[in-house]
Amino acid sequence: MVQVVRSTPISKVTKAPARLTALLLTLATAMTPSARAQDQGPGQNTPGVIRDAEVEQLLRDYATPIFRAAGVNGGATKIILIGDRSFNAFVANGRKIFVNVGAIMEAKAPSEIIGVLAHETGHIAGGHLAGIHAEMAKAQIFAIAGMLVGAGGMVATSRNNRPGSQVGADAVGQMGMLLGPQELVRRSILSYVRSQEEAADRAAVKYLESTGQSARGLLATLERFENESLFKTSSIDPYTLSHPLPRERLSNLESAAKASPTFKATEQPALQARHDLARAKLVGFMGTPAEIGRRYPVSDQSLAAKYARAVSAYRFGRLADAQSQVDALIAAQPNNPYFHEFKGQALLESGRARESLAPLRKAVSLAPNGLPIRVLLGHALVAAEQADEAVKTLTQVTQSDPEDGEAFQYLAMAYDKKGNVPQSQLAAAQGFFLNGRYVEARTQADRAKRQFAEGSPGWLKADDILNYRPPKF
Predict the structure, then answer these.
(1) How many CB atoms sit inside 10 A of residue 191's CB?
(2) pLDDT per residue over 12-27, tens digit each?
(3) 192-209 pLDDT, tens digit each
(4) What pLDDT is stored for residue 145 in this prediction?
(5) Do 98 and 82 form a contact (C-beta atoms < 8 A)?
(6) Is pLDDT of 328 > 50?
């Protein structure tokens, strides 16, 4: 199930302390020079967070060997999908790798995404977020000193700017004194960031080699960046960029990548097949009809093409056609949990909640770690008036992933159907809070807190929400 959580702001996910800090951290760790995730508050127009068990599991399988090679704790590192169609990925908050769906949709081979994940893992293993904080602390001292010198210069020149005097500076020059140190700070930090990118590229090649994988996918990604920026970088000052120029990155990495003994390693057929299905699914859910038809024409009888066309049929209201196509997919791969999930989703969202339970339960049994499938099952159970099982299912999800706001929303509905008003209000408060809707969260938390015994777990959770104050930018 591709679910866009549009109300979750990027700032809530990254928890950046300030606008400048968030921007610099994004610049420090973005795969491309044009990182899209910026620090924006609730209600602003940010790309949605995508939840999909199939794509999430694929990325996790791509990343696990890389994490192990880098000595990174995979259990503490999350991979989060962003509904942005640009080819990009970045690290934020130390242990969260954000991958744009556009990267998966455009990458023809698993090695391209694996190379991206290896690069981002290089940032985590290298402690680059901690490093940029230290660099910013030094820069602040530099900036303050520069501002004081500039202010002192303004005072001195203002005394000398008498009629007829040739000593001093005009207003433009005085402003330049103030802006000069800030520009030096910016360039200093960007220089530090560029060095991090080079280090992450080198680390990626090392991780790929140690896992027996080729760096060709990483080179292909850098070549894509070079081609995209070919006509954009001729007049750009390279010292004002957060990343080395794509041509420079490619030149620096090419010799090391080609010297690796694993450079000629081929793609794993099983991963390629899963990659093709994930790409097809995302195109089906996010592409225009013309794009879907161009990428997956009827003449293409591959399983991936059939998947894209089935998703397209469902998405554009041809439900009977979609059901027959997904049944054919299940017949081809009866143990593919995501085909059963898709069938259940199509039934649920066409108002047939009870019929959706069987395929969704089948999907959960085949992919027990696929939390988005469990959320979908919980939704179906609520709609099918099976509140007890819904509470059990959704509670398991929220315990495994306390940041799943959608699960809390459906849990609130399930508790409401059971007549448990305090738990319903508390779950609603948690769901609103995770989606950055702090006013609604405090309202529900206040109502819930009044009904729990003081000091009880529910009372404490509601109190935490009431006492939380979002950062001001």
Answers:
(1) 13
(2) 233 333 333 333 333 3
(3) 455 677 788 889 999 999
(4) 44
(5) yes
(6) yes
Confidence of residue 91 (pLDDT cuts 50, 70, 90): confident
CB-based burial label for 288 (10 Å; 0-12, 13-18, 19+): exposed
User: What's the confidence (pLDDT) of residue 472?
Assistant: 66
Between these two residues, 5 and 288, which has the higher pLDDT value? 288
Choose among 428, 424, 403: nearest CA to 415. Answer: 424
Token pair in block for residue 329: 């997919």
Contacts of residue 77, Cβ cutoff 8 Å, sequence gap at least 6:
63, 67, 95, 96, 97, 124
Q: What is the pLDDT of residues 263-302, one digit of tens each?
A: 899 999 999 999 999 999 999 999 999 999 999 999 999 9
